[in-house]
Structures are given as C-alpha cells and as structure tokens.
C-alpha cells in the first residue's frame, strides 16, 4: 500500500516537468537559492567593512576581456593518408597488445600432482623450484663434474645468479617442533 502511495506522489512531482523547466529558464532573472543565516550575516559584515568589493565583483574587467579577445584558436584536422591497394584496413594493435601476446594454450589447467606447479615452458634465465633443487643436488653430489660454469650453461642462467643460488638457496626442511625444548616463535608475514 505504501509503495502505491509513493508512486502516486512521484507521478505528481514529475507531471509537466519539462514545461515547468522551460518556464523557469525563460525568466530573465532567476531567483538565487536562499542563503544560510550565518552566511548572510558574514556578507553584510563584509559589505560594511569594504563597500566597494561588491561593485568590483559586478564590474567587468576590461583588461581581462582584452586578453580574451586576443586569443585565437585555429583547429585543423590532420590530413588522412589515402590507402594503397596493397594496404589492409585492419586496425593496428594497441600498445598493450604489442607488448604482450595472448596465450596460445587455452586449455584448462590439469590438477597439480606435485607439491609445486611446474609450467610447460620456462624462459631463459628463470628456474622452477624443482629445477633449483636439481641444481643443488647435482652440485652437492659431485662439484667437480657439475661446476658453477657448467650449471649456468646447461640451465641458461647468468654465472653470478648460479653462484648466488648455490650459496644462498636451501632445500626446504621440515623442523619438528616437538623435538626442540624451546620451539621458535611463529612469525607472521609483514609483522
């Protein structure tokens, strides 16, 4: 019932709205919105202190009008090149498409059977976690057969990056808390 009453009020408010708007716009002097009492009081105080401020505000500044009259804006459309018969009318790719191509494989990903997700293709200079573990194992088993230079060339890595991997990267370890008398505190990321 209340909704029907609202619809009736809304219909009355919107009745003849276009004609009322035109009538209001056709008036020579549009009545300004009423001022808040505190604003009106401040304006009166300002007029008493500086009576010429209101006159300056109403007057047109001839100097500024002269600046506007001296401005000239010429707009010209760029010339369009005529298409040669061998040229195609296909749109050029946008900037974002030129840097990044769409994926060629659109099949859904299979369920991961290993702990780490291994991509099909690895770019040069990059490693997956299993590849890094393999590098560590090879170098640890036989450093003479697998020196840093050979690992860098086999896996297409930078020599300094390979040295840093062997020096700083460690295999993942599970540390049981029950075996230690004082377990280390758990640190949350970002704290």
From TrEMBL:
Coiled coil residues, start to end: none
Gene Ontology annotations for the cellular component aspect, listed alphabetically: mitochondrion
Superkingdom as given in the UniProt entry: Eukaryota
Location of region: Disordered: 25-51, 73-101
GO biological process: mitochondrial respiratory chain complex I assembly
PANTHER family for the chain: NADH DEHYDROGENASE [UBIQUINONE] 1 ALPHA SUBCOMPLEX ASSEMBLY FACTOR 4 (PTHR13338:SF4), UPF0240 PROTEIN (PTHR13338)
Name this protein carries in UniProt: NADH dehydrogenase [ubiquinone] 1 alpha subcomplex assembly factor 4
Organism: Patiria miniata (Bat star)
């Amino acid at each position: 019932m209340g909704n029907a009453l609202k619809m009736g009020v809304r219909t009355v408010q919107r009745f003849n709205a276009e004609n009322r708007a035109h009538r209001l716009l056709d008036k020579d002097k549009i009545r300004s919105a009423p001022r808040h009492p505190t604003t009106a009081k401040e304006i009166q105080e300002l007029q008493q202190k500086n009576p010429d401020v209101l006159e300056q505000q109403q007057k047109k500044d001839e100097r500024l009008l002269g600046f506007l009259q001296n401005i000239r804006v010429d707009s010209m459309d760029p010339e369009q090149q005529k298409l040669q018969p061998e040229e195609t009318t296909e749109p050029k790719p946008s900037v974002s498409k030129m840097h990044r191509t769409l994926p060629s494989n659109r099949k859904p990903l299979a369920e991961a059977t290993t702990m780490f997700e291994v991509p099909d293709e690895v770019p040069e200079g990059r490693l997956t976690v299993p590849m890094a573990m393999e590098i560590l194992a090879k170098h640890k088993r036989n450093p003479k057969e697998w020196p840093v230079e050979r690992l860098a060339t086999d896996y297409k890595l930078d020599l300094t990056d390979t040295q840093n991997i062997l020096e700083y990267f460690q295999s993942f370890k599970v540390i049981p808390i029950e075996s230690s008398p004082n377990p280390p505190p758990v640190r949350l990321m970002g704290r």
